[in-house]
Design brief:
The chain has 14 helices and 8 strands. The chain is α/β, with parallel strands linked by helices and 337 residues long.
């Protein structure tokens, strides 16, 4: 019997950017992208952690302009689709065109799980210039399966090639994933993808649950490099999928070597589920908030857990990183009363 194909979307050079403070160099980007391409991943995502045009005082400046990284990577990526992330309000259609001019072949347009309508023009534009376009719903634990289906249909109607559901906070357990992916599978006719963070130690399990419910695109990073406790670990995911009888098209030994020999040496810290990242998952807080929270906690002499719990209580979402310092200040004032 023919094995079912699962497309591996490697986001080491995008979500992993958060974990290295957006410090990828041209040599690092080309080494990682070139080897990932040889190993057989389907899409290679390269952007600032917060998407194209994310380099800013609010989200952190990139060491090397991302268009320069894209241009260099495009010269070594021969088989996979070189992909960018775009968050409407951060990246613009002009930025998207520039990414295309520098070699990007696909874009994943990411919105909060209830705001798909703000991506319509970006997806339509991407399709008009010959790019693969993906609708990406972030913080999907914050919406019911019914609401997610409603939002996904907005992406379908404007021409998206597939829908990607993101557990941006690493908050979901496998049954949460199953409910959302199965609802999409039963309601839309285009492929479904899934993006997970490991803040509760469940990213591989959640990714497998998504596959079992019909997802055919799964995000992962080498060594799990990414925001918070990191993402689904690519080499582990590929090994598990192979054991379960799926076809990823990825050279398993090769992807292990990429992770160990190229990615691990540039990591600034191990991707572990420590107390702060565990709190991200437990409180349902956007994973890229972690380093911002550490800095705010140090500045105001607070426990990072207290900041994260308050961010979760307020329902903060991606794009509100500037509010972390405000929350920390307010908590410090309360503490000193």
């Amino acid at each position: 019997m023919e094995k079912r194909k699962i497309n591996i979307v490697d986001t080491t050079l995008r979500d992993g950017s958060h974990a290295v403070s957006h410090s990828f160099t041209v040599d690092q980007a080309t080494a990682i992208a070139g080897e990932l391409d040889k190993m057989g991943v389907s899409l290679i995502e390269l952007s600032h952690g917060d998407g194209i045009a994310g380099s800013s005082i609010n989200y952190g400046f990139s060491k090397v302009p991302e268009m320069e990284l894209l241009s260099a990577a495009s010269k070594v990526v021969k088989n996979a689709k070189l992909t960018v992330l775009l968050l409407p309000g951060i990246g613009t259609i002009e930025d998207l065109q520039q990414a295309k001019d520098n070699g990007a072949q696909a874009v994943r347009v990411a919105t909060h799980v209830t705001e798909a309508d703000i991506a319509i023009q970006h997806i339509k534009y991407a399709k008009s210039i010959g790019m693969m376009a993906v609708g990406f719903l972030m913080m999907s634990h914050m919406a019911s399966p019914k609401k997610i289906v409603e939002q996904a249909k907005i992406f379908v109607d404007c021409g998206a090639d597939y829908i990607n559901l993101a557990d941006s906070a690493g908050h979901m357990v496998p049954d949460d994933v199953r409910a959302r992916i199965s609802a999409l599978k039963n309601s839309i006719d285009i492929p479904i993808g899934f993006h997970s963070h490991n803040n509760l130690g469940l990213s591989v399990a959640n990714s497998i649950a998504a596959v079992e419910e019909g997802a055919s695109y799964i995000d992962a990073t080498c060594r799990g490099l990414g925001a918070g406790a990191g993402n689904t670990q690519n080499e582990v995911l590929c090994a598990v999928l192979d054991r379960l009888g799926y076809d990823t098209g990825v050279d398993l030994y090769g992807i292990m070597d990429v992770a160990e020999e190229i990615v691990e040496p540039i990591m600034q810290r191990p991707q572990v589920v420590n107390t702060a990242s565990l709190m991200l998952g437990y409180a349902g807080v956007y994973s890229s908030f972690l380093l911002h929270t550490y800095r705010a906690a140090e500045k105001f002499h607070l426990n990072p857990r207290d900041i994260l719990v308050e961010l979760g209580r307020r329902g903060m979402v991606g794009g509100q990183e500037d509010m972390i310092i405000d929350v920390a200040f307010e908590l410090s004032q309360q503490k000193n009363r």
